[in-house]
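Subject: design request, 102 residues
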């Protein structure tokens, strides 16, 4: 159990060991959520702010598709092209052979 002091301005300094366990060590400022649990207590949750234009990347469906693609690469299941024209021809071929793509 760790005790911390809240100063008159409401600031708390997290001990070095706690910062390390939360992954908050280093020079950069960090964002931490103070979240209320169902038991009425609070927990600190390290967070990352994601720019709005990058939110799509973190959608579960996109993450699943990326994981599938990475697995394909690991298994050697991919097609290599040598020129941009070859790549475009391959993409066109995939579009033609896939139902519902236009």
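Subject: RE: design request

Done. Sequence follows.
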């Amino acid at each position: 159990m760790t005790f911390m002091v809240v100063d008159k301005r409401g600031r708390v300094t997290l001990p070095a060991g706690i910062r390390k366990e939360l992954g908050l060590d280093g020079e950069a400022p960090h964002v931490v959520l103070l979240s209320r649990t169902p038991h009425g207590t609070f927990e600190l949750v390290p967070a990352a702010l994601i720019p709005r234009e990058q939110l799509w990347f973190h959608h579960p469906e996109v993450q699943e598709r990326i994981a599938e693609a990475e697995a394909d690469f690991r298994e050697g299941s991919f097609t290599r092209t040598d020129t941009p024209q070859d790549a475009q021809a391959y993409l066109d071929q995939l579009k033609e052979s896939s139902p519902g793509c236009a």
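The mean pLDDT is 89.
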